[in-house]
Amino acid sequence: MEQIFYPYFSISMTYHIVLAVLALLVFGYRFYRQRKMYQLVLAIAFPCTLLPYAVNTMSFFYAVGVFEGLALLLALILSQTVDKRQKPSDSTTDTQENSSAEP
Fold this sequence. Notes:
By secondary structure, the protein is mainly alpha-helical. The chain has helices spanning about 15-35, 35-45, 50-55, 60-80, 80-100. It has one domain.
């Protein structure tokens, strides 16, 4: 099997596809189990790195790069704001219930 290299990717297309599908499966499963929004963003963003293979222009390559950067920034913001807000409220409820049950 011949490996295809594109001038702007440092790995072959085969490895790129395997890594993108693996990222989709891992982050998709993590979102399914934990329901954290940043995992959904990453599950969508990583496979989008395959789009430059379909449209072989440098301007599209840079547009996908900007999209990826914004998606990573959004995932970082979501992980520090929305997803952190959900966890402390659950743990404070558990702590209040446990402290009231003990004499």
